[in-house]
Amino acid sequence: MAEDKAALRRTVHQYIKQMNNRQQVDQVIHQKLFATEIWKESQTIAVTSSLPLEINTSPIIHEAFEAGKTVCVPKVTEQGLTFHIIHSVDDLETGVMNILEPTTPPTTKSIDLCLVPGRVFDRSGYRIGWGGGYYDRFLRTYEGETVSLAYSVQLVDQVPTEPHDLPVQWIVTEKEMIQCSPYLL
Questions:
Q1: Which residue, among 161, 130, 162, has the nearest Cα to 48 in the 3D structure?
Q2: Tens digits of residue pLDDT in 9-42
Q3: Could you tell me the CA-to-CA distances from 100 to 24, 92, 176 in Å, in that order?
Q4: Positive or negative, the Cα torsion across 173, 63, 99, 21?
Q5: pLDDT value, residue 103
Q6: What is the per-residue DSSP string for 72-135?
Q7: C-beta of residue 120 within 8 angstroms of C-beta of residue 156
Q8: Could you tell me how far CA 46 lies from the centroid of its own chain?
Q9: Rounded to the nearest 5°, which phi and psi values hold at 103?
């Protein structure tokens, strides 16, 4: 199974590298997210600082600040993910895997919306991340809304899953907003 996941990651990375209009596609995805009721109603947003092959999250962080939302950024620790309120991008420094992490203390504030990162997704909301399982552990006790942002090239028919894997509720791509099957009404 680990080989299947690694192969899917490599394939999707190649698709993303071949995109020549990523900045414009990112903007479309951002606007789709900002137009959702989930975004509009959420007061506290959890969002990671994006890596080079991910949708740029800097505009999301800036939009959240502009809208008066509380922004929480995760930090990877031995115990798992901790979330930290940031007040500006100056509250971030390079951490594990060259991801910008918060320098502020952890918070216990309730998070309304968690933007869950991933590399590969299926329409049921299952995802392949970087392999650490940090978000799956966090999502076990998280009760708010979950949304993943993805390029349409990151969607596959089915992601190999393990018993501990948990799906997200929504996936936003440049082409569509997918309400994932475990949460269909």
A1: 130
A2: 899 999 999 999 999 999 999 999 999 999 999 9
A3: 23, 6, 28
A4: positive
A5: 94
A6: EEEEEETTEEEEEEESSGGGEEE-GGG-EEE-SPB--PPPSEEE---SEE-TTS-EE-SSS-HH
A7: yes
A8: 9
A9: -105, -5
Determine the length of the chain: 185
Work out the number of other CB atoms within 10 angstroms of the CB of residue 146: 22
Kindly report, residue by residue over 70-103, the tens digit of the pLDDT: 999 999 888 889 999 999 999 999 877 778 899 9
The amino acid at residue 76 is V
Residue linked to tokens 């190999």: 160
The tokens for 94 are 């390079």
Q: How far apart are CA 19 and CA 125, in angstroms?
A: 23
Q: Give me the pLDDT at residue 184, please.
A: 44
Which of helix, strand or coil describes residue 162? coil
Which amino acid is residue 140, in one-letter code? R
**What six digits make up the tokens of 1?**
């199974």
Strand partners, 92: 102
> Encoding tokens for residue 98?
């060259």
Distance of alpha carbon 174 from alpha carbon 25, whole angstroms:
6
Q: Give the global pTM.
A: 0.92
**Which tokens sit at 13?**
């990375």
* Whether 100 contacts 56, CB under 8 Å: no
| Bridge pairing between strands 120-121 and 127-128 | antiparallel
